[in-house]
Design brief:
single chain, two-stranded antiparallel sheet, alpha/beta, TIM Barrel, binds coproporphyrinogen III
């Protein structure tokens, strides 16, 4: 019934399914129109509105999956940190770098997420059956980095990285706390009706891979285990993981989402045949023009003709100011190309 779930399960389909990270945002004229009336937080917090925004890209772009309209920073909020979403990005009132005892400062309370489960139920009542809903949360390094640093204007998180290097034991305890609440959150998203679950490790490249592997990868596996125990496919997006990609096989996830720096055909050779792949168009390509986009999309035909456990996506989220027509062009192209399967 769903080309997205069939592909994840290993069924050979006539084309790759397609969706875009951050598809439910500023690329859509319909979203921008809603943003004239509501703030980002209002759209997220009101279940009816969150459900409506979640389904906008299904109607407007024709994607094969919807992703819940929310944010990875709801987990820090549920742990007691105050986060504001301003036009310049998220802002923490008091990041952990300013706190003397972070463990005592945090008060995880999973009941915070109730409004999100409501949105999931509304989405499931109104969405087309063949378009599954993807749930998500942030992965421990990315979530912890925001919690420590607060702002991420330069995407380098210098204080967060310093904190992790200096205080590995405290880091491990904070990671455990994040894992515990993320497991409850993932489980309840699934019980409420999400049919796939993606863990966003957008800042996997912040620290050396050996440290990532020791301090954070076991945490990813714990969340993955909770998701997979329900029979729900587990997607992992370790952006910037570098040569750590060799470890991203089917033991870690059902599908690994690949950033645009990597050669996806090369990645397939490194990770074995069992794990699904997702990716990996450079999102900046969508800022160009249909002829340039077409030229790059054509380079995927060879890979996609042989590779049927592959979901087309970007190597990171859609960028602000991406012309809607370009995003739509790429999606239509993927759906109508001759994949020679
Ligand atoms: O993918 C989707 O369409 C679903 C919804 C979604 C959002 N954020 C909505 C959003 C998802 C999956 C995220 C994940 C997220 N949020 C990540 C990890 C993945 C990634 O893209 O890097 C991170 C690091 C965040 C934290 C965050 N939220 C930042 C840094 C920002 C500001 C920068 C930006 O891109 O706007 C946000 C705000 C945010 N989250 C918006 C949206 C649609 C923009 C809100 C607006 O201005 O209308």
């Amino acid at each position: 019934m769903s080309i997205f779930l069939d592909t994840v399960k290993g069924k050979k389909c006539e084309r790759p399914p397609v969706w875009f990270m951050r598809q439910a945002g500023r690329v859509l004229p319909s979203y921008l129109k809603l943003r004239e009336t509501y703030t980002f937080s209002e759209l997220m917090l009101e279940p009816e509105l969150a459900a409506k925004v979640t389904l906008l890209p299904v109607d407007d772009l024709g994607v094969d999956a919807a992703i819940l309209f929310s944010d990875i920073l709801v987990v820090p909020q549920a742990m007691g940190l105050k986060v504001e979403f301003s036009d310049k990005g998220p802002r923490f009132e008091k990041p952990l770098k300013e706190v003397s005892n972070p463990l005592e400062h945090l008060h995880p309370d999973a009941s915070f997420f109730e409004y999100i489960y409501k949105a999931i139920k509304i989405i499931n009542e109104s969405k087309p059956k063949e378009v599954p809903l993807i749930g998500f949360c942030g992965a421990p390094l990315t979530v912890l980095s925001y919690m420590i640093q607060g702002l991420s204007s330069n995407h380098e998180f210098p204080d967060a990285t310093k904190f992790i290097f200096e205080q590995p034991e405290l880091t491990a305890k904070l990671v455990d706390m994040i894992v515990e609440i993320s497991q409850v959150y993932a489980q309840k998203q699934i019980e409420s009706g999400v049919e796939a679950f993606q863990l966003f490790e957008t800042h996997a490249g912040l620290i050396p891979y050996p440290i990532y592997k020791k301090l954070f990868l076991p945490a990813v596996e714990k969340i993955g285990k909770t998701v997979r125990a329900t029979g729900t496919p587990f997607f992992f997006f370790p952006k910037g993981i570098g040569n750590g990609i060799v470890d991203m096989n089917h033991n870690i996830a059902d599908v690994v989402s690949i950033d645009w720096q990597a050669d996806i055909a090369q990645v397939r050779k490194q990770v074995g045949t069992e794990v699904g792949l997702q990716g990996n168009l450079d999102p900046r390509l969508l800022l160009t023009s249909p002829s340039v986009i077409k030229r790059e999309l054509e380079t995927y035909i060879d890979f996609g003709s042989k590779e049927t456990k592959w979901i087309f996506n970007l190597g990171h989220g859609v960028l602000p100011n991406t012309p809607f027509e370009n995003a739509k062009y790429a999606i239509d192209w993927i759906k109508t190309a001759n994949w020679k399967r």
